[in-house]
Structure formats: C-alpha cells, structure tokens
Design a protein that fits this description.
Helix content is 72%, strand content 0%. With 465 residues, it is an all-alpha fold. It folds into 2 domains: 174 residues, no CATH class; 280 residues, no CATH class.
C-alpha cells in the first residue's frame, strides 16, 4: 500500500480520518498507533512484530536512561547496548546479504548459502528515529516518554513511516500530547498532500518511463540519449522523494502534526555543499547531530575533519542500500565535499553563478548514475556513454522518443525551480485566490486519480531504503 494508490486515498485514509476525529482527543494517539501498525503490516504482517519489538525495546531503554539520569557508567552502558541492538537489527535485515555475497567472492567462503532475508520497508527510517530518541534522552535534550502509546505513535506514525522524513523525537515531543488540530492546518495538509501527489504521479512517474526507455539502450542511445536518460532519472528521484515527503507532511498536518521540510529546491544549488543542505535535509541533520559532531566535527584539525567527512559519507551511502555502488556514491560525494571544504568553495564564490551552478549539477547528475546502477561495470559503461565512449549517434527511433519527451522534461525542470512557489505567494494576495486554489487542488487530485487508474506504473524509489 502506498500513499498514491486508490485503496489508500479512498479507503484507508478516509477511514482513519473519520475515526480519528470521532474519538475523544485522549484516544487519538491510540487510533493512530493501531492504524499505523495495520498500514505497516499490510504487505508483510510478520514485520509488525519487528516494529513492536523496536517500540518496546527503545521505550524501555529510554525509561532506563531516565532512571540512571546523568552520563554515568550505567547510562552509558544502556545507551551502548541500545544502539548496538538497533544497528544489529538494521544490519541483519538490510546488510546480511551484502556481507555474505562479499565473503562468497573469496574461494574459502564459497560454500556459504545465499541468505533469503526480506527487507522490512522503512526500517532505515524508523531505526534512525528510535536511535535519535535514546541518544537525546542520554544527552538530556528530552525527557523519557513514559506513555508507551505516545512513544509507539512517534515510531510507527504512518505518514512518515515508510520513507521519511526522519522525524526526531525532540522535534515533535510536545506535539504528541499537546497538538491542536485546526481547519487551517488541515486545509494546508490537503494542499501539501495534493502537491506531493502531483509531483509523484504526474511528474516522477513520467520521468521514470523516460529513464527506463533509455537506461539500457546502450550504444544506440548515443551521447544525447545517455544525457537525457540520466537527467530524467535526476528529475524522477527528486520528484519521487520530495513528493513523498510533501505527502507525509501534508498527512501529518491533517492529524495536527508539523514535520520538518525535507527538500528546499536542491537543483538551484551553486555547490555540492549547498546541494546537501537542500537535499534530504532530515537525513543530513541526523548524520550531523549524531555522527559528525560526536566524532569531533571540525574541532580537531583538518585531518580529523577530513576523516569525519569520509566516515559520515560512507555511512550515508550505505544507509541508502546494501550494495557497493551506494558506498561508492557516498565516497564520491565525500571527496567532493572535502575538496570544497579545503579550496573549491573559495573558487566557486569568485566565478560567475552560472558556472558554479553548472559545476554542481554536472557532479550531481554523474552521481545519480553511480546511485542507480548496482554494477560497477554498468556505472562505467553508462558514464562512458555520456561522453561518447561506445558511439556518439542516437538511433532514429530513440531520437523520436527523446523529441516526444521534451515537453514533459521541460515541465519537470521548470517545476524543480522556485518560480511556481514565488508565483503562488504573489497570487495568494488576490481576493478570490482561496476559491481558485481549492479548484486547483481538486483538479490535481482528479488528474492524479485518473492517472493512477489508467497506469499500472507507480514505483516509489525510496521504499527500498
């Protein structure tokens, strides 16, 4: 079940909202927890047990940290034990296959069987959320949550459960018990949800169709086909993930929650450093607060800072998936960010903005090629094709396909820039704007529904993480 499916929109969501607003406020977290667990268990009911274990285990660890208040030996022992268990669960379900397949490459371990371990959807997101909670309790940034229903709601809340944003407990601690639902917040949630749904269904899916057509076209795609293909994927992954984040934030608003913004027009960036301040903001914040700064950040000299950056980005890469291309992708950006820290940012500030933007997008686009292909040979082949290795010309059939795709590609590029947002704020001052806006939201929801009914192609890229 996904947010952009017909059963979710007209079945599950309608039922949850109805029950949520009928019951007294003191029971609303319980309603959210029950429906969130049902939502999570729709595909694989057995993983509800894993979710419940994660909730209860981290809840108990939080209480223990509260009892052993202060950074003493007992508190540190509880913290270390809790983090180890969380990482062990994530490692087993997500990385055991990668570990075994790597060992099997060595003749001495060739006898090992291939592990058949299903990946619980969203495990990376809720594991990071629970670890942030226990770390913040240990550091004294928040008090332990004594109500297990409230804590379970924080961990399992279905709007952001599957693919983020990563919500830290300290950011919504008060909202769990003191949030105020309102018509204004609800209507804002509907607008956000409609925006995210449009990004996903009307743009990301179309970009995915273009990418799938050109991805393995090989030499027949030529230089043009390779660039158009990877640009389509660059747009697909942005609209896919930012669309999901907007839907999650919108759904949160409908239930009285305010989640952090996860994307801030990353493709207008003028450096890789700026790009990563605008892309997947909640993940970047998590690694900065719970890995980079505890490692020493930039406080222990240039050499240590460089090491810390590489550790963070190796982990960032592996967080995205159990494949060596993700590690390579993380190290790739680690190198670029280190270069910018030491000298490139000074260079970028001196050159015209258009060139710094071209520089940024060039390396981001190449990075997405590393991200999407799990085979190193496929990565090398595709990037080589972008620069003419294997043939520069594009076949007539693919050229016709590219030309036919240009209108939607141009629309996607335009939509990835802040022009629409600026126009929205100007139009919002008009007298009849609320009526126009309501009509536009209704039209978008109708178009998206029609598209979902018509097409069976509706992937969510970040479900695998």
């Amino acid at each position: 079940m996904v947010f952009s499916s017909i059963p979710f929109l007209f079945g599950f969501l309608a039922i949850v909202l109805t029950v949520y607003y009928i019951v007294p406020k003191k029971f609303r977290n319980f309603v959210l927890l029950v429906f969130s667990l049902l939502f999570y268990g729709y595909g694989e009911p057995v993983f509800i047990l894993l979710m419940l274990f994660s909730i209860i285990f981290n809840y108990v660890c939080g209480l223990a940290l509260g009892k052993f208040h202060g950074k003493n030996k007992a508190s540190k022992t509880v913290l270390i034990f809790c983090v180890i268990v969380n990482i062990a669960l994530l490692g087993y379900f997500k990385y055991a296959g990668l570990f075994v397949s790597t060992l099997k490459a060595l003749p001495v371990f060739s006898f090992l069987p291939d592990p058949e371990i299903a990946l619980p959807i969203g495990i990376s997101f809720y594991t990071f959320q629970t670890m942030s909670y226990v770390i913040d309790v240990y550091n004294g940034n928040c008090k332990p949550q004594k109500n297990v229903i409230n804590f379970g709601t924080f961990v399992a809340l279905f709007p952001q459960l599957i693919a983020g944003p990563i919500v830290r407990y300290v950011d919504i601690e008060n909202q769990l018990t003191k949030r105020r639902e309102s018509a204004e917040l609800f209507s804002n949630g509907v607008r956000l949800f409609a925006l995210g749904l449009a990004k996903k269904v009307l743009i990301a899916n179309e970009m995915g169709i273009i990418w799938n057509e050109l991805k393995f076209a090989g030499d027949s795609a030529g230089v043009l086909g390779h660039w158009v293909g990877i640009i389509a994927f660059t747009l697909q992954i942005y609209f896919d993930f930012s669309g999901y984040s907007d839907m999650a934030r919108g759904l949160g608003n409908m239930f009285g929650f305010s989640f952090v913004r996860n994307f801030d027009y990353p493709y207008i960036s003028k450096s890789i450093t700026e790009f990563w301040r605008r892309w997947h903001i909640s993940l970047g914040t998590w690694f900065r607060e719970y890995v980079y700064i505890p490692l020493g950040g930039n406080r222990k000299g240039k050499g240590r800072q460089c090491l810390n950056i590489f550790i963070v980005w190796a982990l960032t890469g592996l967080w995205h998936g159990a494949s060596w291309n993700f590690l390579l992708w993380g190290v790739y950006f680690g190198v670029l960010l280190t270069a910018e820290k030491f000298f490139m940012l000074r260079v970028l500030k001196k050159i015209p903005t258009v060139f710094s933007h071209i520089y940024t997008m060039f390396f981001v686009i190449v990075g997405w090629a590393i991200f999407d292909f799990t085979s190193v040979s496929d990565i090398v082949k595709y990037i080589g094709g972008m620069f003419g290795f294997g043939g520069a010309g594009t076949t007539a059939d693919l050229l016709s396909f590219i030309v036919a795709s240009l209108p939607i590609l141009c629309i996607a590029v335009f939509a990835s820039l802040p022009f629409i947002k600026k126009a929205y704020f100007k139009l919002s001052k008009m007298k009849f704007f609320p009526i126009i806006e309501a009509a536009a939201v209704l039209a978008v929801l109708t178009l998206c529904t029609a598209s979902l009914v018509r097409s069976g192609y509706n992937p969510f890229l970040y479900f695998r993480f």
